[in-house]
Write a structure and sequence with these properties.
It contains one helix and no strands. By secondary structure, the chain is an all-alpha fold.
């Protein structure tokens, strides 16, 4: 059992070193990707807000027409349904 302990310690050291190398290699591209995403979100923010306001305005103008159509359809159903 004693000869395996130094081997296990050496393997653990190699795995740790390899893992640290992978992390060091992956962090800069990940940081660049995160920075690019933040810039894109910052640039797209005003356009998203404008699109949302446009959609809300359109729905506000469409709402009375939809309510009138629903009321008219309700009256037609009541008038056509036999009592």
């Amino acid at each position: 059992m004693a000869p395996l302990v130094p081997l296990q310690v050496a393997l653990a050291g190699r795995v740790t070193a390899a893992g640290a190398g992978v992390v060091r290699a992956a962090l800069p591209p990940l940081a660049d990707l995160t920075e690019a995403a933040a810039r894109t979100a910052g640039a797209a923010g005003p356009a998203l807000i404008a699109a949302e306001e446009l959609a809300v305005t359109g729905l506000e103008q469409l709402q009375p027409l939809l309510l009138a159509s629903a009321a008219r359809a309700g009256r037609v159903v009541v008038a056509v349904t036999p009592a």
